[in-house]
Amino acid sequence: MDFSWLSRTELLIGRERLERLVGKHVLVLGMGGVGSFAAEFIARSGVGRMTIVDGDVVDPSNRNRQLPALATTHGQSKVEWMAERIRAINPEITLNAVKEFVRPEAIDALLDTDADYVIDAIDSVTPKLTCIKSALAKEMRIVSSMGAGGRVDPSKIVVTDISKTYNCPFAQHIRKHLKVAGIRRGLTVVSSTELPDRESIIHTDGTNFKKSAYGTISYMPAMFGATAASVVIRNLMEQ
Q: For residues 143 and 115, what is the distance between their CA atoms, to the nearest angstrom?
C-alpha cells in the first residue's frame, strides 16, 4: 500500500498503529449528517476496508448538514456519492457500498460481517434499537450516535455509556427500550449534555420509522460523526 498520503498520520501514531488501521474493517450504518462525516474520517485515517449503508437520496433540506448534499446532487443516492468520494480519498480501499435502507428486518444480514467496528448513525428509533441489540448480542464493537438535533454547543458532546446519558430525549428513549430487553449498560454512545431546543421540533409522516425531527445547525452532526470516528480509530489502532 502507498503510505505517502498518510505521512502526517504516521508521524503522529507511528507505522505499527497505522498498519493496524489498514488491516481493519469498519461498518457505517447511515450516510446522513452524522454517518457521512464519520465515514469520511474513517477513510482519511487509512482504514483499509469499509462497508457503508444507506438507501436514501439527497433532499434539498439535507444541504445544511450532510456531506453528500449539494445544490448539484439533489435526488442522487447518498451511498453512491459517498462511495465515489471515499474511493477518491483512498483508491486502494476495499469498499462495499450497500444501497439499502437500514430496516429492522435487514439488520441481521447487514451485521453478518467480519467488521471490526460498527458505527451506528441511524436516526430512526426502531431500526436503531434492532441494530444495537443485534450488535451487542453478536459481541460486535459498536459506537452509537444519539441526538445531534436541537443543539448548538459542540463543547457539550461526550463519549459515554448509554446508562450515563442525560439531557438527551433520544438517548432516554433508546435507554428505556434497551432496559426492557435487559440491557442497562455496555453501549458506548456519542451524546450531548446540552438540552435540546424543544421549540425547534417538527413532526413527520413517520416514513422510515421517523416520526419527528429537531432543527439542526450545520456543524453538530459533523461533530458527532467526527467524535464517533475518533472512538473507532483510537480503539482500532491500539488493537
A: 13
Instruction: Burial-class residue 167 by CB neighbours within 10 Å (0-12, 13-18, 19+).
Output: middle
In the DSSP assignment, the letter for residue 108 is: H
The pairs formed by 208-215 with CB atoms below 8 angstroms and a separation of 24 or more are 208/56, 208/101, 208/124, 209/103, 209/104, 209/124, 209/125, 209/126, 209/127, 210/123, 210/124, 210/125, 213/123, 213/149, 214/147, 214/149, 214/150, 215/149, 215/150
Q: Which residue has the cell 498520520?
A: 9
Q: pLDDT digits over 200-234, tens only? A: 988 776 566 566 789 999 999 999 999 999 999 99
The number of domains in the chain is 1
178: cell is 434497551
Residue 228 in grid coordinates: 464517533
Give the number of other CB atoms < 10 A from CB of residue 179.
13
Average pLDDT estimate for 73-84? 98
Supply the CATH number for residue 106's domain.
Answer: 3.40.50.720
- Domain residue limits at 58: 4-236
pLDDT 10s digits, 157-207: 999 999 999 999 999 999 999 999 999 999 999 999 999 998 898 877 656
What confidence tens digit (pLDDT) does each residue in 40-69 have? 999 999 999 999 999 999 999 999 999 999
